[in-house]
Amino acid sequence: MAMEKTVIWESVFDKALARAKNEKKFVVLDFFNPG
Amino acid sequence: MEAVTFPDEKVVAFMNERVISLRVAYNDKELAGRFNVKWTPTIVTLDGEGTEHHRTVGFLSSEEFIPSILLGMAKSAFDHEDYGLALEIAGELLRGYPSAAAAPEAIFLQGVCRYKKSGTPASLKEAYEMLSASYPQSEWTKRAYPYRLL
Q1: Which residue of B4, B24, B39, B142 shows the fewest CB atoms closer than 10 Å?
Q2: Exposed, middle or buried, B97 (CB in 10 Å: 0-12/13-18/19+)?
Q3: Is residue B1 part of a domain?
Q4: Residue A34 — pLDDT band, cuts 50, 70, 90?
């Protein structure tokens, strides 16, 4: 599989948590300034 | 972070392979309120239940970002009393990023995890000795100071 060149961001909290549980991973939540 | 840290290929690989990356605007009413976010960038490490275990505020270079997230992962494992996993992740941090700002806390955490697993106070003293030898100015060396007497 080709390596992605950018971070794949989720934007929906509940979806991120569901993926974290399913994939047994942690969530890194970035609060950013969209400018 | 946007211009320097997140485009770094090591950060991209780490984020896409090891964690679920979630990005939310700082003024998101629900989430910024729930996590009491007042400044950016704020980076929070959560478990799958949405519970916070670690946060940083302010810029992190690519060299500091990955070890900071590893520390958050180790702290989450510790909070879930999975001391073996916490030790494994802290060890990964220290092997890969011994000069990172997160390293001293990882040594402190290792000492506590080893003590929790074995009940041996020497684990805490050993952590202090490692900290005082390698990171004498760290706040974590100061926090471990009483362990020198064990």
Answers
A1: B39
A2: buried
A3: no
A4: confident
Element (H, E) at B12: helix B9-18
Instruction: Tell me which residue of B117, B71, B9, B38 sits closest to A26, measured CA to CA.
Output: B71
Q: From the list B15, B35, B49, which residue is nearest A28 (CB)?
A: B15
Strands A26-32, B42-46: pairing is antiparallel
Q: Is B62 exposed, middle or buried (0-12, 13-18, 19+ CB in 10 A)?
A: middle
ipTM (interface pTM): 0.93
Element containing residue B70 per DSSP (H, E): helix B62-79
Six-digit token pair at A35? 């400018």
Query: What is the rounded average pLDDT of the residues B80-94?
Result: 98
Q: Report yes or no on B100 lying in a domain.
A: yes
* Per-window interface: B 14-33 vs A, CB < 8 A: 15-16, 18-26, 28, 31-32
On the question of pLDDT at A1 being above 60, the answer is: no
Instruction: Indicate whether A3 pLDDT > 80.
Output: no
Identify which of A4, A24, A27 has the shortest CB distance to residue B12: A4
CA A23, B70, A24: angle at the middle one, nearest 5? 10
How much is the pTM?
A: 0.95
Q: Determine, yes or no, domain membership for B89.
A: yes
